[in-house]
Amino acid sequence: MVAAGVDVFSDALRAQGVGVTDVEWRPPTIGLADDLTQLALDPRRAAANRVAVERVLASRSTLVDVRPATEVLGLTGRTLLHSGPPLTWETASGPMRGALIGACLFEGWADTPEAAEALLAAGGVELDSCHHHRAVGPMAGVTSPSMWMWCLADPTDGREAYSNLNEGLGKVLRMGAYGPEVIERLHWMTTVLGPVLQAAVRSRTEPLDVTGILAQMLQMGDEAHNRNRAGSLMTLRELSPSIVAVDAPKSDIAEVLRFIGGNEHFFLNLGMPSAKLAMDAVGSVPGSTMVTTLARNGTEFGIRTAGTGDRWFTAPANTPVGLFLGDYGPDDANPDIGDSAIMETYGIGGFCMAAAPAIVRFVGGTVPDALATTERMYQITLAESPALQVPILGFRGAPTGIDVLKVARTGWLPQINTGMAGRVAGTGQVGAGLVQPPAACFEQAVAALAEESRAALG
Amino acid sequence: MHVSLRSGVYADSVKLMQVSKAVGARDGVTAVLVAMATPLNLELAAGMGLDPGEEARPDQLLVALRAVDDAELAAAVTAVEVALTAREERGSADAVPARTVGFALAEEADTPLAVVSVPGPYAVAEAMDAVAAGRSVLVFSDGVPVEHEVALKAAAHEAGVLVMGPDCGTAIVGGVALGFANVVRRGPVGLVAASGTGAQQVSCLLDMAGVGVSHVLGTGGRDLSAAVGGRATLDALAMLDADDATERVLLVSKPPAPEVAEEVGRTAAGLSTPFSSAALSADSPDLTAAVEALLREMGTEVPVWPTRSGADREVPAGAVLKGFYSGGTLADEAMLVAAPALGDVRSNTPLRPELDLGADFGATGHVVVDFGDDALTVGRAHPMIDPTLRLEAVAGLAASGEPAVLLMDVVLGYGADPDPAGALVPAIRDLPFPVVVAVVGTEGDPQGWSRQADALAAAGAHVFASNSAATRFAVDLIGA
Known about the structure:
Mean pLDDT of chain A: 96
Number of strands of chain B: 19
Number of domains of chain A: 3
Distance between the termini of chain A: 36 Å
Mean pLDDT of chain B: 92
Helix content of chain A: 25-40%
Number of strands of chain A: 17
Strand order of the largest sheet of chain A: 7-6-3-8
CATH class of the largest domain in chain B: Alpha Beta
Shape of chain B: elongated
CATH architecture of the largest domain in chain A: Alpha-Beta Complex
Protein name (chain B): FdrA protein
Organism (chain A): Klenkia brasiliensis
Structural class of chain B: alpha/beta
Number of helices of chain B: 16
Structural class of chain A: alpha+beta
Protein name (chain A): DUF1116 domain-containing protein
Strand content of chain B: 15-25%
Domain ATP-citrate synthase/succinyl-CoA ligase C-terminal (chain B): 325-474
Radius of gyration of chain A: 22 Å
CATH superfamily of the largest domain in chain B: Succinyl-CoA synthetase domains
Shape of chain A: globular
Low-confidence stretches of chain A: none
Number of domains of chain B: 3
Largest sheet of chain A: 4 strands, antiparallel
Oligomer: heterodimer
Pfam families (chain A): AllG
Radius of gyration of chain B: 34 Å
CATH architecture of the largest domain in chain B: 3-Layer(aba) Sandwich
């Protein structure tokens, strides 16, 4: 038997020699009881969630092209995309402002950081979420028209998703740095890296199977969010033969290979749009309580669900807890930032912590903690991925499809692994660690889903 | 300041950041960087004024420290060594406990049934997990909105499973007692019970007559209301009809809503298994009589129900009936049996609205209080577990000096107080007026019918196995 609630029942059952599994039930702290019951009783829920998560599991991602954002997204004029839910210059955090300033300098819209700031403050640049353009970007996620983007496609239906190219570690635009070396690197990525990668990718006879690489990464100690070492190396191995055959100066080829090989997060910008592709496959599914987006803009955390479509539920972002580079400390860290939580939305990253025990040490945790984290995520998700498996758990599939209702009932928030940007614009990366969404996002989602449920059921 | 480069030592960046953090937390250490000597890390070191000042390769380990004095510095260097070689806890997780019924059931594929006793506002979500997993569920919780009960039972009907409850305290499924249930023999009679203590009285009397039960399926006290429409009762009747072990079906309940009674009657008439009803009403006020009728139909001899004689206390002049009950149906039965002889009986669960006692348990005149009523169990355990409220009422009655005959129930079995007589004995031993107790239970119960009855009789109480017999005895004492 399974028993939830007061002990006297299970005690009486045990006294009769009946085996009892006790549920460690806790009063839900997220959502009103009446709303949770409304969702639990909604007759559409089970089927809607099945449809939603099956769309995620059916999605495959292949690398089909590398092109400038102007071509891919049709970005024209002074438009910049950023990570997370929509924001304004006024509400943008330090690293987000730093990245926006850097992008204006890179595009030549301003000659100095001060001029860039004035331009942005005057509303001279249109801002929008990457997520609104089938795109995702790590950390600040700032994507400008001249930047080159990975183009990932689902071979079954041709849908695409995009991300810019990863710049490496340390002082980089996505962490809010905008010094000359940052802008110089962005120019090199536009004039050398992008075109070389485009020629290499286009020359392949078969598009790179990125979902396949993700599956292998989990068997090699990566969780594909904060640890991308195996994935980056496999990508380098796959692309190298095509890269060296590109008609470009040898020195450029060498620099491209050195750049890729020196960046253990190079793969992240391929993993993220692959996860985005899978979550975008869900679309709007009335009655479903599955999360389709977890994203942060450095000020707010935003979530979206299949049952409520494009609507964002936002709340002030938490600040990650973790380890710091050099003598940076907790006071230097900006609140949570980046679209990279799309990895957790897809069921990997923090959800597959058990596959990458090295990551849990970011907060002084242990290997058993890593295993327990993934075990908990099974209790807030709808399915196990047949493609992405965790070896140490007996090759159990990744916990996929976050269920708002289960999050509310268990009180266990999604576990996210993340980098940490300096809170002062221009600083760059200060560390890496673990973070959770604010409970308030889920409270709003529960209320909205319950409202939709009442309206739909009459 | 200590800055060194070491070859042939590798640790990954996470490990090294941990080491830096641990050593940096020492008092006396003012700066620390333990990292592989990559260009990025050398730049960080330079920024901290800890430049190694020599050509470094990325495969070398940079250990750079600054401390307040040499002793602290040396200790910090040692701490780096210790931290680099420290062994971590191995990988095996303690099982993460299930937080929901749904997850627990997914892990326990063979489990046929779930029991939910979480607070009412959250009970339906847990119960719905069981229904969605194709399992029957007993919901002990009360305080569930009626529209949620209806939706839950509709979903259960679709799924072909049974929701026992909400507010279902008693069931026996396949010989396993759930909630407040007694140790009774297995046998041919299947009970469908909208009333917990009613089902306990009936199953215990059957057991005393040597007749066992196949199942006791609870439905929740509200199931036979017009709003719920007897959904669980109808499903339970169908399940018992299909059950090979069940040869007789008996419905135990308070009076159903008329339209529901009609629907239940139609369904009962269509059963292939013989059906009888023990629905309490002014016309059929007696559960014991219903059991006796069933026994006769089955051709089984009706036994003499056990009793114990108590102290021969004088009945005070002008005595009134004070019924202090823990079982709701037993309280109803007492009122239905007593009212024809005594006239109106006031109660917190009255037979007619105008007899409502409110919260005035010390009111004079004929009074029956159900201490198990929902209104009295908010934030406290049921009186079958926690006798406090009832003991207070007994003490209050004694102090009031009102002439009375005290009638009580003691319900035995799983879930109940391990020694209810033990709690009552001091309260009734020295009362100046007669005490009559219905002990509902069996010899097989953990408390043992005879042990409890003997203890109460020794304290002066007249003890009966039948609640209606106890009530009649009390009424006869009053002599109305």
